[in-house]
Structure formats: structure tokens, C-alpha cells
Amino acid sequence: MSMMTEMLLMTITLFLIATILPRIYWAFAKVEELHHEQNTEQLEEFLVERNAWVLRHLACGVGAIILIWISKTGPGMEVSSSLIVALGVYAACSLFFAALESLLAHKIHRIMFEVAVKVRMRD
Questions:
Q1: DSSP 3-state of 31
Q2: What total number of domains does the chain contain?
Q3: Which pLDDT score is estimated for 117?
């Protein structure tokens, strides 16, 4: 049963990697497009969406770390080391995605500040 759980967790992790990385790449491209259009309203909406994704990824990563901690320190918990490794890989991926989304949110914030400064200088 443990082997099946490990394989399921690794399948989920690989599926997340295959779907989230292209979505993050698309988001970077969308930010560049909105920057060239100087569309601040959509950039603000996009920033709120990115911040929500950062929180989601952080929650998943921290949740996986908590599960690892519980399985290591819980009394009577006999969890295989390969399942803990699979959880660790999932936690690392989630935290990596949170970092990428955070970088994107920072870039959006910087672009919005830059656009605001240009508008003030024109006025």
C-alpha cells in the first residue's frame, strides 16, 4: 500500500510540474504584454492573482513539511523513507513555485511603479 501511495504522490508532483511551469511562463509573457500596453488596471488584477498563487504554493509546501515532521516525530508512526522523500520533493516543488510566483509579483509591482512614475513625469 505504501508503494502505491508513493507512486501516486510522485505522479501528482510530476503532473503539477507539467501544468504549473507553463502557466508561470505564460504569466511572465502576459506581464510583458501588459507592460507594453501600459494597462495598469489589468496589471493590478494580475498582481492580486499572483499573490493568491504565492499563498497557495506556500500553503502546500508548508503543509507537506508539516506532514513530514509529523511522520518523523509522531509516536507509533511507521512511514517509509521513500514516502517521506516523495513528500519532500513535493514540498520543494511547491516552495520553488512560490518563489517563482513571488518574483513575478515583484516584477509586476516594479512595472506598476515605473508606469506611475512615467505618468507623473508627463503631468
A1: helix
A2: 1
A3: 58
